Amino acid sequence: MDGKKAQHEIAGFVLIVLLVSVIGVVFLSLLFARGTTSEQKSFEISRLLESSMYTTSDCSVNYIYQYRDINDLIKECYATKKGNVRECLNGEEVCDVLQKDLKNILDSSLDVGDDSVNRGYNLNIYYSYGDTSNPNEQILTMGEGFFSNCTSIVGGGHSIAAGSFGFGIIETELKVCKG
Amino acid sequence: MQLINEQKTGVKCIMMWDKVRNTMGKLEIQIQNILKYFAPLFLERKGQLKIQAQNICEYFAPSFLGKKAQLKIQEMAFMLLAVFLFFILVGMFVLSIVYSNIYESSNTIREERTLSSLVALADSPELSCASSKSNCIDGDKLIVLLNNSVYPRFWSFTSLKVLRLSGFNKAENELTSCTFANYPNCDIFQVYDKKVANERALSSFVALCMKESQGEYVYDRCEVARIIAGTQINFEGEN
Predict the structure, then answer these.
(1) In a mutagenesis test of the B interface, which of A50, A54, A70, A154 is the best target, namely the one with the most B β-carbons within 10 Å?
(2) 3-state secondary structure of A141
(3) pLDDT tens for residues B151-186?
(4) Is the preceding peptide bond at A135 cis, omega within 30 degrees of 0?
(5) Chain B interface mutation, best of A27, A32, A47, highest count of B Cβ atoms under 10 Å
(6) Separation of alpha carbons B116 and B197, rounded Å
(7) What residues of A are in contact with residue B135 (Cβ under 8 Å)?
(8) Do A35 and B100 touch (CB under 8 A)?
(9) Residue B70 or residue B41, greater confidence
(10) How many other C-beta atoms are found inside a 10 Å radius of the C-beta of residue A166?
């Protein structure tokens, strides 16, 4: 009688051990399956950023036909943020033109939407001094769509030599949420 | 006479004492003999008792002591099982980390290799921008390449086209192909297409620059475009 009771207890214990193991394995596999949401570097995104930098805008600052590209507009926008306000000859703010043009490029290129492969994107442009003592200075931040429940996040970056602004560099970082 | 009587009495006493002594000796012998006869029986019984006790232990101990040992063995087996499962989980944890990194690296390398071939194509002298911009295609060079029968044999790609930003969100039948007549008001440059079966298209973003003029001023107007190159997939058993 006691022997059978002990056997039942042992069988129960074995079942519990197996159950806990199976749950552990399932939990770990789910954890690592979802691990793909970690950010991955994408050369395609970096190429998109690089190509975007060459895009010619309708903003000219000094001379009517000298249209600035996105690369120049980022520098002009940074100069504006530093207090040296620059405007396009048509009266628009350079930062507004920069944001409008970048939004147009990224919206068309990435085709963001709920039914699309790309659920959303985040663009971050900042000036980096290249050391830890000086914090980064934000130039432009913008985004579109939803940046949640991503199956994966791909990102790319592009650096611009700041030139007259010192030894730092202007970094552009784009992250795309894949649905 | 009295002395003789006393001597006789003395002799009798001695004789009696000897008798007693003999009797005592006999008694001792008798006891020894008795012991000789009965002691083995007693000792054997004692031995038999021991054997019986052992037999009793043999009969009853396995049901008690044996179960305890079995429980201990089972405990050890479960412990070993738990340790085994623990190490399996740890191993899976480590392998997942290692293989996720390898998988990520392989994808990155594959993508890089594919894109580098397209970037090399964009940077080739036939397509590159005059302003020495990397990853930039000159639209004016591209329009000259259209309908040229030499280039399908020059490049290893089975098809080559460049899609302008204006055509990014359009369906294929809505795209306006670029010709000398409608350039630059068009959506896609169809450089060539060998029209092969099992074609896989690779694409990458490039800058597409074209000369524009306003009055007397000529400048480069650049935009984002997508270069799309096709490669034929060879399945197993196919040449």
Answers:
(1) A54
(2) strand
(3) 888 888 888 899 999 998 889 899 999 999 998 899
(4) no
(5) A47
(6) 24
(7) 47, 50-51
(8) yes
(9) B70
(10) 11
pLDDT mean values, one per 10 residues, chain A (179 residues)? 75 82 78 62 87 93 84 91 86 93 92 87 91 85 88 89 77 91
CA B195/CA B176 separation, integer angstroms = 19
CB A120 within 8 A of CB A146: yes
Domain definitions of chain A by residue range: 41-178
Contact between chains at B222 and A24 (C-beta distance less than 8 A): no
| ipTM score of complex | 0.76
**How far apart are the C-alpha atoms of A155 and A173, rounded to whole Å?**
7
Taking a C-beta distance cutoff of 8 angstroms, is the pair B198, B208 a contact?
Answer: no
Is the CB of residue B202 less than 8 Å away from at least one CB of chain A? Answer: no
Q: Is A41 on the interface with B (CB under 8 A)?
A: yes
Query: Is the Cβ pair A44, B67 closer than 8 Å?
Result: no
Among chain B residues, the shortest Cα distance to A49 is held by: B205
Distance from the Cα of B169 to chain A's closest Cα (Å) equals 7
Task: Look up residue B149 and give its two tokens.
Answer: 């029968």
